[in-house]
């Protein structure tokens, strides 16, 4: 597995029949809020000089009137200001379990796995998202978490 780009995330989400609203940079969130999944890159699309930026880290969230959630595979529940403002009208559960180690480039894969899991397991967002992160080692055993993630994605994509 290698790092994923916007179009790859969109294509895989479509193959998985996920209700993906879109894949965005944090500074390009759409003005209209729709129910469904959003994948967000935590870097702006361009720097202050107009140079296109490569992106930094993928997170995802779901907007739903009564059961919204925010997932960051690094376990950081502090959202960028742009995302915090976007979600301020919703009661959002944020995970704080780190399942991806710092050197890994699998944040897009973790987002796809989380969205698929959340889409197919119903219940209170806090409970279901915790069940998802509990599939992984929280001591950041990157080899084991990579294998778990790869096996999970292979099982849902085939």
Number of domains: 1
Distance between the termini: 15 Å
Strand fraction: 15-25%
Look at the structure and name the CATH superfamily: Adenoviral Proteinase, Chain A
Helix content: 25-40%
Class computed from helices, strands and strand pairing:
alpha/beta
Q: Secondary-structure element order, as H and E?
A: HEEEEHEHHH
Distinct helical segment count: 5
Main sheet attributes: strand count, strand direction, barrel closure: 5 strands, mixed
Query: What's the CATH first level?
Result: Alpha Beta
CATH architecture label name: 3-Layer(aba) Sandwich
Instruction: Show unreliable segments.
Output: none
Trace the largest sheet across and list its strands.
Answer: 1-2-3-4-5
Rounded Rg: 15 Å
Query: What is the count of β-strands?
Result: 5
Give the overall shape.
Answer: globular
CATH topology: Adenoviral Proteinase, Chain
């Amino acid at each position: 597995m290698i790092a994923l780009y916007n179009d790859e995330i969109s294509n895989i989400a479509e193959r998985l029949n996920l209700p993906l609203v879109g894949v965005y940079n944090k500074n390009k969130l759409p003005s209209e809020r729709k129910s469904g999944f959003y994948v967000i890159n935590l870097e702006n699309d361009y720097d202050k000089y107009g140079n296109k930026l490569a992106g930094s880290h993928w997170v995802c969230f779901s907007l739903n009137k009564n059961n919204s959630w925010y997932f960051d595979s690094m376990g950081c529940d502090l959202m960028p200001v742009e995302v915090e403002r976007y979600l301020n009208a919703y009661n959002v559960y944020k995970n704080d379990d780190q399942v991806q180690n710092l050197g890994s480039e699998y944040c897009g894969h973790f987002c796809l796995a989380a969205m698929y899991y959340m889409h197919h397991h119903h219940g209170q967002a806090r409970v279901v998202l915790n069940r998802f992160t509990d599939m992984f080692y929280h001591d950041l055993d990157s080899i084991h978490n990579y294998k778990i993630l790869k096996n999970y994605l292979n099982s849902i994509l085939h």
